[in-house]
Design goal:
The chain is mainly alpha-helical. The chain has 6 helices and 3 strands, in the order ααβααββαα. A hairpin with a 2-residue loop joins strand 2 (about 100-105) and strand 3 (about 110-120). One of its GO terms (biological process) is response to stress. GO terms for molecular function: DNA-binding transcription factor activity.
């Protein structure tokens, strides 16, 4: 990733509020929670659009990524790690199983649990999706120094840990 000078920061000070019909208060910087939420919505929209030509939904891409990282998972584990409900995960898994992207096998240690695993076909479509998402991530990180991107990633990981409790 090329390293370039970081973007200039917006001024952080605001002018005092004026009463009556005088000048309006300067806009305060958006809250961090607002910015993270806004970025989440933008990324979801852009990833959904970018993955569609590959034949993947965002939920499928996320699930395939989780299975690739974990090796195997139950439907409940996959739902939790893919940010979808168990019912939605079941629908996603059924569609991916029909496309032969995953296998479903009974857990040898627990009869009621079904273990999901990625197939070679699933890995192939995941590689295509990963290339698409990598391109989008490169666009997002344009003009950001590698050290700044690493710092942001570390902070986001800490935010998630803090909120999980």
């Amino acid at each position: 990733m090329p390293t370039k000078a970081p973007a200039k920061k917006a001024p952080s000070s605001t002018k005092p509020a004026q009463s009556g019909s005088g000048p309006r208060k300067a806009q305060a910087r958006p809250r961090l929670t607002y910015l993270v939420g806004s970025l989440d919505r933008i990324l979801r929209r852009k990833m959904t659009e970018a993955l569609a030509p590959v034949g993947l939904t965002l939920a499928q891409f996320t699930a395939l990524s989780v299975l690739d990282a974990r090796g195997q998972a139950s439907n409940a584990q996959l739902a939790e790690r893919s940010f979808i409900t168990p019912q939605s995960a079941n629908e996603v898994m059924s569609a991916m199983s029909a496309r032969k992207w995953i296998t479903r096998e009974p857990d040898p240690d627990h009869g009621r649990i079904v273990l999901l695993r990625l197939t070679d076909e699933g890995r192939a479509v995941l590689r295509q999706g990963t290339d698409v998402v990598r391109s989008l991530e490169n666009q997002m990180l344009h003009n950001i120094q590698a050290s700044d991107a690493t710092l942001v990633q570390n902070c986001l990981e800490l935010f998630a840990r803090n909120l999980r409790g």
